[in-house]
Amino acid sequence: MKFFTFSGLLFSLVILVSCHSSEKNTARETDQPLNVEQLILRVSEKINSNPNDDRLYIERANYFLTIDSIQSALRDITFAIDINDQDPNHYITLSEAYLALGNPDRCIEGLEKALEIEPKNQEALLKKAQLFLIMKQYDKTYETIDELIKIDSYNPTAYLTRGYALLEQGDTIKAIRNLQTTIDQKQDYFEAYIQLGVVYINLGNPLAADYLSNAIELRPNSPEAYYLLGMFFQENDEPDKAIEIYNNILAIEPQFTFALYNLGYIYLVYFKEYETAAGYFTQTVELDPNNYEAYYNRGYCYELLGNKSEARIEYQKSLELKPNYELAIKGLNRLD
Q1: Is residue 98 within 8 Å of residue 106, measured between CB atoms?
Q2: Within a 13 Å sphere around the CA of 72, how many CA atoms are in the beta-carbon half?
Q3: What is the DSSP string of 270-289?
Q4: What whole-number distance in Å separates Cα of residue 35 and Cα of residue 23?
Q5: Is the pLDDT assigned to residue 177 strictly greater than 80?
Q6: Where does residue 56 rank: exposed (0-12), middle (13-18), buried (19+ CB within 10 A)?
Q7: I need a surface site. Which of 7, 260, 289, 307 has the fewest CB within 10 A?
Q8: What is the pLDDT of residues 289-303, one digit of tens each?
Q9: 292 Cα distance to chain centroid
Q10: Cβ–Cβ under 8 Å, residues 138 and 165
Q11: How far apart are CA 211 and CA 204, in angstroms?
Q12: CA distances to 214, 300, 302, 314 from 309, in Å
């Protein structure tokens, strides 16, 4: 009979419609010593000197977007369009502002206007495909990606986006092909390695470890990549390797509660070291006081150690956080 509970987080990769082009990001990296407010002031001074330069309004709008000052961004975008209504990038930025407001219809309108001006604008097409994916309009996602790839077959993010859509629709084989094409075109595409790792974990395929190891090589300080690799080892009965991975995570991010929780689980289930396991669950609830599973598992450790009074407290706490939690109810019944 299973008395313990295992919590495994598989990081779902969300399609992020980037708020800024690579050109804008490059400019920002150059300006990193200044904070956003200082950058806004600097651009404002330039606008005072050049009030008819539409690009300056867009630059300031992008800075406003980074601090979620959406209305200020919209005002500047409107100024820019009033000055120059034939720049597709202005409408792309407009779509990003509406996306931040949670208005996908207006976001699409902005992208459509950009494409009306420049039908082969790859940034607008890609963002349009990503937005259709977020809206789960898969046919439109595929149509837009096909249009994009006809313009330029080298577009790793387009294949990645199609891979996500195929996964959401359950076509794993075609999704793998598209994700692999992403890596073939861009060998340092971290998100593609991560997603392939997740796919192969779900398939129980040892290739998962290879893809996740590649992701770690690309971003050695990514707790997400390490966590997924730890999950792979844990689910394939290699607890020692999983422990090593989770400890690597905690060296990078000491408050990563999922690693702490899973260490507790391993010491509880695999090694029967109940005091050690309880210690990890304690660290988990200190950082995440609403984690009812951690309270339950700590209670189960206490029960196995013969400390029924403490076990009862933990089971009751678990039920406070999640009423009718079956394992906690069964735990209390065992103590009666």
Answers
A1: yes
A2: 14
A3: TS--HHHHHHHHHHHHHH-T
A4: 19
A5: yes
A6: buried
A7: 289
A8: 999 999 999 999 999
A9: 24
A10: yes
A11: 13
A12: 47, 11, 9, 9
Residue pair 144/129 in contact (Cβ under 8 Å)? The answer is: yes
CATH fold match for the domains 17-119 and 255-336:
yes
Q: What angle do CA 275, 280, 286 make, to 5 degrees?
A: 120
Spell out the domain ranges in the chain. 17-119, 255-336
**Per-residue tokens: 334:** 């065992």
Amino acid at 219: R
Residue 249 above 70 pLDDT?
Answer: yes
Backbone angles phi, psi at 171, to 5 degrees: -95, 80
Domain 17-119 indexed as CATH 1.25.40.10: yes
User: In sequence order, which residues have a C-beta less than 8 Å from that of residue 128 and are 6 or more positions away?
Assistant: 108, 111, 112, 115, 144
Residue ranges in the chain assigned as alpha helix (H): 22-30, 36-49, 54-66, 70-83, 88-100, 104-117, 122-134, 138-151, 156-168, 172-185, 190-203, 207-218, 223-235, 239-252, 257-269, 274-287, 292-304, 308-321, 326-335
| Tokens (6 digits) for 217 | 């090589």
Predicted confidence (pLDDT) per residue in 4-40, tens digit: 554 444 433 333 333 333 333 333 333 344 699 999 9
- In the structure encoding, which two tokens stand for residue 143, read together? 């149509």
Tell me which amino acid residue 74 is. L
